[in-house]
Amino acid sequence: MLHFVQHDKRIHFIEIMKKTAIILFAFLLLGNLLPAQNAVEWRNDRTGIYTETGLLKAWPAAGPDLLWSYEGLGEGHSSVTVSEDKIYLTGMTEGKGFLFVFDLSGKLLAKKEYAEEWDASYSGTRGSVVPNAGKLYVVSGTGEVVCFNQNDLSLAWKKSYTKDYAGQIPKYGVNESPLIVGEKLILTPGGAEHNIIAVNKNDGKLIWSSAAKGDISSYCSPIFLADQQVPQVVTITGNHVVGIDVANGKMLWSFPFTNRFMEHPNTPVYGGDNLLLCNSSYKVGSVMLRLTNGGRAVEQVWTAPQLDVRTGHMLKLGSYAYGAGDYKKGWYCVDWKTGKLQYEDRSLPAGAIIAADGMLYCYADNGTLALVRATPEKFDVVSKFSITKGTNQHWAHPVIYKGVLYLRHGNALMAYKIK
């Protein structure tokens, strides 16, 4: 009997070791698939929520300590991204777009021209740089897609929305931070045939092309829904929000979503099978959709006609969504499930919003940066100060990385200590 008991124990031990090995392998594989923890992309991970803790809960009257600043970016509205402790940003000078690379101390490491930039209405750079696996991806306002090797900024490949995909350039230029899913780089040329495409991120070769609804592209940066039965890309084009099968480019569903200018700069907000789509003002409001049938269809949950969001986006914290209205309105909080308005506060002009460590960072378009408690009870401003450096509109989104808040205002980049 003892022999068989020991034998059973050995078998049990071997099975445990096998399962442990499988779990460890899964963790290692997942670690290779997930982005590095020392990287910050567009709105961190496109949610606007940063995971850092131990940040200041109040600032001095003059604002947090300014660690360093750089004035010389040229024209632009793009936001900071970070990879491997290097800061990436774009700016325009005399119609040319330049990629800037800084270290965390503010030292300019490199400056590289990449393409003609948008030198018309509200001129300057738009979409943020996307770093990934040793490459840097930039989409210019003129629709040029440029891929650099990250180590030496040598050109890896280049494509054109208009020349290569018969795309259309919208009224205010292309404003897109491209999306990377595995080996695919997702782009929105906005053409009748090549409306939304996936190219190989390493060489730029076309993987699939979706005609979608044939709309013009509309300033929206797409998101990836990995947890649906059919993993998919979601973005907003001129008159529709669409879900695209990331494997083959098949359009899974579409939903009418428009305004009189076909402008949709707000990245969709996703959580718990629900998608919050914020319309860019013009008294149309926002809508909540629910994905059904494993992501193959959607249904409308609620609408909020008063919830106009110009360019500052919204974000989901717990059971609520926070964000700003159009230029004549202030700041909102709504119930995520019902759309019920929790508050509307006009004490501060509208602007861009991010969140970290239980606080909202609200960058108003008059240059005020406010630290606000994330509570549905009221727009509870703890601290605020004015951004005095820089030029033109206050449209870039704040970024948090390793206890420092980075803020771009036109030709200026500022780094504030908030930890």
For the terminal residues, how far apart are their CA atoms? 64 Å
Total helical elements: 3
Instruction: Tell me the total number of β-strands.
Output: 34
- What structural class do the secondary elements suggest? mainly beta
What's the rounded overall pLDDT mean?
A: 90
**CATH first level of the domain at 52-76 and 344-394 and 396-419:** Mainly Beta
Structure description:
By secondary structure, the protein is mainly β. It has a domain at 52-76 and 344-394 and 396-419: Thrombin, subunit H. The chain is built from 3 helices and 34 strands. A hairpin with a 3-residue loop joins strand 29 and strand 30. Residues 1-37 have low confidence and may be disordered.
List the SSEs and their pairings.
Elements: H1 2-33, E1 39-40, H2 43-46, E2 49-50, E3 65-71, E4 81-83, E5 86-93, E6 96-103, E7 108-116, E8 130-132, E9 135-139, E10 144-149, E11 155-160, H3 161-165, E12 179-181, E13 184-187, E14 196-200, E15 206-210, E16 223-225, E17 232-236, E18 240-245, E19 251-256, E20 269-271, E21 274-277, E22 286-292, E23 297-304, E24 314-317, E25 320-324, E26 331-335, E27 341-345, E28 351-356, E29 359-364, E30 368-373, E31 380-386, E32 399-401, E33 404-409, E34 412-417
Parallel strand pairs: 2-28
Antiparallel strand pairs: 1-4, 3-34, 4-5, 5-6, 6-7, 8-9, 9-10, 10-11, 12-13, 13-14, 14-15, 16-17, 17-18, 18-19, 20-21, 21-22, 22-23, 24-25, 25-26, 26-27, 28-29, 29-30, 30-31, 32-33, 33-34
